[in-house]
TrEMBL record:
Enzyme class: oxidoreductase
Region (Disordered): 433-455
Tagged with keyword Transferase: no
Reactions it catalyzes: a quinone + NADH + H(+) = a quinol + NAD(+)
Protein name from the UniProt record: NADH:ubiquinone reductase (non-electrogenic)
Entry-linked InterPro entries: FAD/NAD-bd_sf (IPR036188), FAD/NAD-binding_dom (IPR023753), NDH-2 (IPR045024)
Protein family membership: Belongs to the NADH dehydrogenase family.
Domain (FAD/NAD(P)-binding): residue spans on this chain: 7-333
Organism this protein belongs to: Mycolicibacterium frederiksbergense
Length: 455
């Protein structure tokens, strides 16, 4: 029932899918945007939500609200799980595990990446990543609960373990998390406890490189290192995290030295990403190459070889070392929309050219770095530039106004207004801290249970 109009199916409501659908709004095509979440998430500010500065509402917006004025854009909740390229049909799964199908004339794969543990999936139980809102709330729960538990313990190794936070990965996300935890401990929580001194909390940052923020120029990387060290973050470079368990992490120096163990009851993982399962499935079904992380080979226009009607954008596009940053996804989404619009007008597609708009990393209040071509900013200027650059890209005017208002308050005060967290509920094993391990009813022994059942 599309009145003969071209059907465009976009998988993923992140930056790539969002900007593609926006540009196609009001055009003579039928757009369906499928995402496993009901809202668009501004991932670059996710760590601010995890550490209590911003709320979920500040960094996300319902997709239905976003596209309410575009009558040719339909948003659906579901997860793509299968594709039939011959019939041009995608199968999606609803939250209740039932499935439905969607037909397309043009398919845009903007499903993004997920956290990678480099084959050590058991790490995830003890070291959550930070890619979704659920991840941010999980981290918020773990970090604030760690201080609460430490408050009830006497001085000693057990308390020290709860007041030690390990971060794996020295990229922007790892640096931002480490800096925020130290800032929170030394400013926000400094005078709120009686038995512990939160400012004594240790934050350990592990990375295999020679310095943090390797994508930035050495000058800004050194500035970030000095800022982290002034905050009290302990940097351990040139090491690999080889094990994570309930009590901490084990690291192996890359130069071949002996393994070292660090007791830490809160471990956070930002060390790598990989393609979501559907992206790997597409590569297999289409018979196209993908790299070790699952990025799919694409042509100059971001389409898949042999399938000009299928585009891959954002983090999943494997071409010319395209960076896994929001700007690449945005530009890729706009490019694909342009290709579709040009074809509607009988014009040929143009090749995709990524324009580097710079990089930024937040360390602590008044400390950030920004690199845009030859322009390099650090300290307070970098922090102000970081804030307004990020807020400028937020979805929706209301999000920008509320976020900038909250952010401006943090300039004057160190208070974090969004620190609420919940402990786990019965029957939710994915919740890290919960009362259910001790207050749930104890089941009777098997012999007693069988007798009760038979009676």
């Amino acid at each position: 029932m599309n009145n003969g109009r071209k059907r465009v199916l976009i998988i993923g409501g992140g930056f790539g899918g969002l900007f593609c659908a926006r540009r196609l709004g009001g055009t003579d095509v039928e757009v369906t945007l499928l995402d496993r979440s009901a809202g668009h998430l501004f991932q670059p500010l996710l760590y601010q939500c995890a550490t209590g500065t911003l709320s979920i509402g500040h960094i996300s917006r319902p997709l239905r609200e976003e596209f309410a004025r575009h009558r040719n854009v339909t948003t659906l909740l579901g997860e793509a799980i299968d594709i039939d390229p011959e019939s041009r049909r995608v199968t999606a799964r609803r939250p209740d595990e039932t499935t439905f199908t969607l037909d397309y004339d043009v398919l845009v794969v903007a499903a993004g990446m997920q956290q990678s543990y480099f084959g050590n999936e058991h790490f995830a139980q003890w070291a959550p990543g930070m890619k979704t809102i659920d991840d941010a709330l999980n981290i918020r729960q773990r970090v604030f609960t760690a201080f609460e538990i430490a408050e009830t313990l006497p001085p000693g190794p057990e308390r020290d373990g709860w007041l030690t936070f390990a971060v794996a990965g020295g990229g922007p996300t790892g640096v931002e998390l480490a800096g925020q935890i130290r800032e929170m401990a030394t400013r926000t929580l400094a005078h709120e406890f009686h038995s512990i001194e939160p400012e004594e909390a240790r934050v350990l940052l592990f990375d295999g490189g020679e310095r943090v923020l390797k994508t930035f120029c050495p000058e800004l990387g050194e500035t970030a290192t000095e800022s982290l060290q002034r905050l009290g973050v302990e940097l351990h470079m040139g090491v690999r995290v080889t094990d994570v368990d309930r009590d901490g992490v084990t690291i192996s120096p890359k130069d071949g030295g002996p393994d070292e163990q660090y007791p830490a009851r809160t471990v956070l993982w930002t060390a790598g990403v990989e393609a979501v399962p559907f992206a790997r499935h597409i590569a297999q079904v289409l018979g196209v190459k993908s790299d070790r992380s699952g990025r799919i080979d694409v042509g100059s226009d971001l389409s898949v070889a042999g399938y000009p009607e299928i585009f891959v954008i954002g983090d999943l596009a494997g071409r010319e070392q395209l960076p896994g940053v929001a700007e690449n996804a945005m530009q890729g989404g706009l490019h694909v929309a342009s290709c579709i619009r040009r074809e509607l007008a009988g014009k040929p597609r143009r090749p995709y050219r990524y324009r580097d708009l710079g990089s930024a990393a937040y360390i602590a209040r008044g400390q950030a770095i920004l690199q845009v071509g030859p322009v390099k900013l650090a300290g307070l200027l970098g922090w102000l530039a970081w804030g307004f650059v990020h807020i400028a890209f937020l979805t929706g005017v209301s999000n920008r106004i509320s976020t900038v208002s909250t952010w401006l308050v943090t300039i004057a005060r160190a208070t974090r207004y969004h620190r609420a967290f919940m402990l786990g509920a019965t029957g939710r094993p994915e919740q890290h801290y919960t009362w259910t391990e001790w207050d749930a009813p104890t089941p009777p022994p098997p012999n007693e249970r069988s007798e009760a059942d038979s009676g």
